[in-house]
Each structure stands twice: as structure tokens, then as C-alpha cells.
Design brief:
The complex is a heterodimer.
Chain A (H helix, E strand, L loop, with lengths): L3 E3 L2 H14 L5 E7 L2 E8 L10 E2 L5 H7 L3 E9 L8 H5 L7 E6 L16 E7 L5 E7 L1
Parallel strand pairs in A: 1-8, 5-6
Antiparallel strand pairs in A: 2-3, 2-5, 6-7, 7-8
Chain B lengths: L1 E5 L13 E5 L3 H11 L3 H5 L10 E5 L2 E2 L15 E6 L2 E2 L12
Parallel strand pairs in B: 1-5
Antiparallel strand pairs in B: 1-2, 3-4, 3-5
Classes of the chains: A alpha/beta, B alpha+beta.
């Protein structure tokens, strides 16, 4: 199992743009690719009834479409508008894709903070989350 | 009734690594039992202790969400494509900040 994912800057920018567009709600989506290299971002609908604090990807069928196109699902992404880019207890509890990288983008420092500092920009990190609730960081390469 | 079952994601390792397999059954429950006969343990991965679909397992029979159409009793038409896929969900679960205004 790879601990690396090539996620080119253009795709990172796309994920961040999605997060900013949905804030203060959480955004979510899929990343397709081949052999550990991401090639495209697929924005999805957050079907959670409480989208400010939870996400549920509505378009699960897109995964089959990715596979039928000869690609792989290389990542599932979502945003944390106000908290760190690290899997929350809910993220860990509801992770059922141990072989797929979870990409998290945080916007907590993407706005000026009290005192006039910042903004420092978005944070973006990747993780594998196993069925045993274990979190392992995935290196995101440009 | 024969159907094609798609298994994207983590559930495929419960079916010998197959991403697409043929199975038969008039209902979703029979279809799962048929797969379980060939791949013991599959049913346990998708069904809970009382035989209902696990909360994080989504099943689509064609365009139909099986959970809202009888669960394991949902009929499987001949030739249907059935997708069994784990949920993709989570979230920060941090309450939005309250207004600082008194």
C-alpha cells in the first residue's frame, strides 16, 4: 500500500476552490487517477442534513464510472471549514475505504484571525484510515 | 434471476478481489447469500447481526436504492446491475461558533 499520492498543484487548487465555495459548509468529492497519480477532481454533493459539520457523498455511482473509464479512485476529499486538516473522530469512525487516501482541506487559517494576523492560507493533507481506526499520513507530492 | 454485482472499494476483498461478478437470486438477500456461498464471510461484511444491511453499506439495484425498497427483501430483476458500495462520509463535527454579540 502506497504512502504517497501525486496530487498536482492544479488539482489542489481545485479542491481548495471547492472548499472556499462551499464554506461554511463542508465540501466533498472524489479524485480519480492512475497508479498513484491523481488526474482529475470530481466535485460531489454533500448530502448531509448538517453540512456545516458533516459530509455524505451523494454520488457514489461515480466510483463505478471512474473504474469503467479505466481509472482508479485515488482519493476522497472533504473540507473542515474551522478545524484542522486531520481526521476527526467522526472521520475515523465513518471511514470504510482503507485503501483510498482521504484528503482533508482546512480553512481555519484561510481568513484573517482576531488581532489582524493572516490569512495564512488553506492547509491540505492526505491520510489512510484503516478499519481499526488507525490514521497514517500520506505524502502528497506535487 | 441473474444479476451482475459491482463491488467498488473495500468490499471487493470480501469477494476474492473481484470487482464485478455474476450472482443469482430473486431478492437482494438471496443474491448476497449466493455470493457468500462462493466467498464465505461476504454476508457478514454487508449485513449486521439481524441480517439487515449495515448502516454504511449502500446497495443500488439499477437506479433503486435498496435501503428504501425493502432492504434485503428488495426484488432483483433478471439482468440487473447491482452495486454494493461503502458510504463516504464523516466531517469535522465541530459546532459552528456562536455569535460573540452579547
Amino acid at each position: 500500500m502506497s504512502g504517497r499520492l501525486v496530487l498536482p498543484q492544479a488539482l489542489r487548487d481545485e479542491i481548495v476552490a471547492h472548499a472556499r465555495a462551499e464554506a461554511p459548509k463542508e465540501c466533498c468529492g472524489l479524485v480519480a487517477g492512475r497508479a498513484g497519480r491523481a488526474t482529475r477532481v470530481i466535485r460531489c454533493t454533500n448530502a448531509s442534513p448538517t453540512p456545516e459539520v458533516r459530509y455524505t457523498i451523494a454520488e457514489l455511482r461515480r466510483v463505478v464510472e471512474i473504474e469503467d473509464a479505466g481509472e482508479e479512485l485515488v482519493a476522497i476529499y472533504h473540507s473542515h471549514p474551522r478545524s484542522p486538516a486531520y481526521p476527526s473522530p467522526t472521520d475515523r469512525r465513518e471511514a470504510h475505504w482503507p485503501d483510498t487516501t482521504y484528503v482533508l482541506v482546512s480553512l481555519r487559517y484561510d481568513v484573517p484571525v482576531p488581532g489582524g494576523k493572516g490569512p495564512f492560507g488553506p492547509e491540505l493533507h492526505g491520510y489512510r484510515i484503516s478499519d481499526r481506526d488507525a490514521v497514517r499520513q500520506v505524502t502528497l507530492e506535487p | 434471476m441473474a444479476a451482475t454485482v459491482r463491488l467498488p472499494g473495500a468490499l471487493r476483498d470480501a469477494a476474492g478481489g473481484e470487482t464485478k461478478l455474476a450472482a443469482s437470486g430473486a431478492t437482494l438477500g438471496e443474491l448476497i447469500a449466493d455470493i457468500d456461498r462462493r466467498h464465505p464471510g461476504f454476508a457478514e461484511r454487508v449485513l449486521d447481526g439481524v441480517g439487515a444491511l449495515r448502516s454504511y453499506v449502500n446497495v443500488y439495484i439499477g437506479e433503486i436504492d435498496a435501503r428504501t425498497h425493502g432492504g434485503t427483501s428488495a426484488p432483483v430483476p433478471d439482468g440487473a446491475e447491482v452495486m454494493v458500495i461503502p458510504a463516504m462520509a464523516g466531517g469535522a463535527d465541530v459546532a459552528p461558533p456562536r455569535s460573540r454579540a452579547a
